[in-house]
Amino acid sequence: MSEIAPKIPAKYTVFPLLLTAMVMAALFAPLPVAVRGALALTFFLGMGSVLGDALLSEESFVGRAFFGVLGFLALTILVGSGLYYVFRLDLPMTAVLLLSTTTITSVYAMRTYARHRTSAPKEKSPPITLTRVMKTLGGVIATSIATALVIYGASILASAATDGSLRSPWDVVPRMFFVLFFLAVLATVVVAHGNLSERLSLIPTALLVVLTVSVATIVYKIGFGFDPFIHRATEQIIFSQGMISPKPLYYIGHYVLVTVLARLLGGFVAQIDTMIVPITLALIVPCAYYALRKTFQVSRASAAAASTLLLALPLSAFIAPTPQGFADALFLLTVFCAVPAIKGMFPRELIVLLSLATVAIHPLAGIPLLAFAALLVLFSWNTTRPSSAIARVTALGIVTILGAVALPLMFLLNSWISHADIAIDTTALESSSAAMNALGSTPVIARHFIATYDFVYAWKTIRAIVIALAGAAGLLLLLRKTKRGVAFLFGAFVLFINFFLMRSVIQFPFLIAYERANYADRLLELLLFFMAPLALIAAAAVFERLEHDRAPLRIGATVLVAMLATSSLYLNYPRRDKYESSRGWSTSGYDVRAVQLIASDAGSTPYAVLANQSTSAAAVHEFGFKKYFASTKNKKDAPIFFYPIPTGGPLYKNFLDMNAAFGSRAVATNAMDLTGANTVYYVVTYYWWDAKRIILTAKKESDRWWSVDDKDFIFKYVKK
Fold first, then answer.
1. Contact, 69 vs 257, CB < 8 A?
2. Is 205 helix (H, G, I), strand (E, B) or coil?
């Protein structure tokens, strides 16, 4: 007698249909923003819970919904990237995307329902006693204090916000902000490790993570860095036109998510772009807590306390809203999820899905992560047949070797396609001393006998070493649980070899000198992020021991965590102190008014501008990718943007030549010959070291000049 197939619950059939109707209403109906936001949020939470039921049926509802939403968003990124490359991402195609992801999720959930009909084991709660009630009440109060301190800290940042040019946000942020941040971390660790209300402490920890990486976003009114302006302008074009031409090879996963969310809300591209990285980074906090509890069964207090050490990591990669920052955040989140997956306590399908989404966002983070996901799957391959064992060893070798050289090969392939000037230097492969020189060494910080700064910069000097040593200790603890933990060792090897080759063998002569090691430095950051889950495993073990030690040791550990977190907060951003001095200046309101004034003066006349990257960022901010010139010297050269782009190019070289020649008309004429424009503007900013001399000379050489509040000086050159 055949077995009767189980009846498929309505949550896999009717529920997705209702959610689809909601999201289509948000997409097409002229509803208020709040209503559209509520419908979109319900859709993602609902479909996330459906996917979570299929992937993590043994988890609690919160766990299923949380990880299910992550998986559903990763699926949206993947399917959306495919649709964008084949078609475009206009409003109808966004509807097709959402219908496709809903269908895929529903079909997958129905197919797995028969295999996963187990209920989640309920975690035993401690008995309710007067002592427990008082501790919980104390935890609620301490959590409220920590949360209030975070909110107050954000208000201090908002009051310090400026549109002036800054070399460091700390030039305008009051020192009280650091005191508040220190106290907030202190209160959070007390809640976590004081057995008050451990899981409640995850809320202020997540808020502190958001605050840590949002300082620049709040303080810099116009914007921080250069790349975010480029990405935001691209997203605006995709949102309004459905695509940008030529279609970018990278970043599209980030653009897809921003565009989909913006279409559901009816706009707000810039705001959505700004929020994605901090929110994704905050989601790592519950992932870290879950990984420690699930894999090692450490106490809630130890897992929550160890999670606060995320604040001590080098988080400078996340302070600007870029695809690289989003990919790095997803990389870190996925590696934390991989810890329980190593033991078979978390679905490996979700690890692979998140890794593929990371590749779609930025291959620099995604390709090593995908190699690690493949290694994780291969190490989990249980077999007793000799032929299968040989096949697994062979596959492990192939994945490890290909993963270790994947990024250099990717850059070489891209250079062949795009004709970018990338060179190969094998000197480091031929000499061990050359290899060591290429890798560089940690700079030694001279002591200035300023106690606070000495501690901060001492932590900067040893932070990578501490993370590596703690990660090694955590790996040993993981290997005690399961031999499959060796996958982390292979993953670290893949990242290190990629870093070594990118630092020593692959050269980028087309980039500005100070940016040529940028890609390798990002890989070094990824290697530290890869070690972070292992380091937190060791930290949780230490906190577990401290639970039974005397109060002074626990108090000392709490203060140390707060000091390290506050130090890392300071180090995450450009600084100007007696130890280091940042040379970069932010885009200001003066730069914005300068580009507006130039555009108004030029009218319909084609023009090119020679200016620094802050002014170029202001131009992208105001006009997007408004104007390109075809090179008059070589028709095969890439089009020339009408403002200099600091990643190289002939117009940026003209700008550097203009500075060296102090505003010479001859250089301006060269720029006219290069672009074919009859008018060239030259912008000099007051903070340049030789600005006064340049301004005096340029006044004589130019046809006309004017200034913006004596901050930006504009010189106009017209072809004779």
1. no
2. helix
pLDDT recorded at residue 112: 78
Helix H or strand E segment including 715? strand 712-718
Helices (H), 624-684: 650-660, 665-675
551 CB-contact burial (10 Å; exposed 0-12 / middle 13-18 / buried 19+): exposed
640: phi then psi, degrees, rounded to nearest 5: -105, 120
Pairing relationship of beta strands 506-507 and 423-424 according to DSSP bridges: antiparallel
H helices present in 161-266, as ranges: 176-193, 202-212, 215-219, 227-241, 252-265
Nearby residues of 98 by Cβ (< 8 Å), 6 or more positions away:
20, 23, 24, 27, 43, 76, 260
Beta strands in 311-438 (DSSP E): 423-424
pLDDT at 204: 94
Q: Which helix (H) or strand (E) holds 681?
A: strand 679-685
The confidence score (pLDDT) of residue 400 equals 83
Under 8 Å CB-to-CB from 661, ≥6 apart: which residues?
Answer: 667
pTM: 0.90
The C-alpha atoms of residue 67 and residue 59 are separated, in whole angstroms, by: 10
Q: How many residues does this entry show for the chain? A: 720
From CA 403, how far away is CA 368, in angstroms rounded? 6
- Cα gap 523→529, rounded to integer Å: 10
Distance CA 604, CA 63 (A): 58
Q: What are the E-state strand segments in 332-478?
A: 423-424
| Residue segments in the chain with a per-residue pLDDT below the cut of 70 | 1-8, 113-133, 195-196, 382-389, 411, 414-449, 505-517, 633-637, 648
Place of tokens 């626990």: 554
Contacts (Cβ under 8 Å, ≥6 apart) of 41: none
**Is the C-alpha dihedral spanning 418, 423, 429, 434 positive or negative?**
negative
Render pLDDT for 117-146 as a digit per residue (tens, 0 to 9): 555 555 555 566 666 667 778 778 888 888
